[in-house]
Amino acid sequence: MRLCDGSTLEPAQLIEICRDRLGSFKSPDRVHFIAELPKGPSGKIQRLKPADILPPG
After folding, report:
1. Which of 10, 19, 41, 51 could connect to 27 by a Cys-Cys bridge, CB 3.0–4.6 Å?
2. Positive or negative torsion for Cα 13, 19, 20, 21
């Protein structure tokens, strides 16, 4: 996930917001913030690339 500039949201806060609005079974277990989403030559976000960037686990 990419945050807006100046945002101070923590991963635990985002997970709690999701649990409050979606329910625990639909909420993510982990959240990772990255500086920029990877994009392909056409400028579209590469949805599978962030999984390659993050450490396993």
Report:
1. 19
2. positive
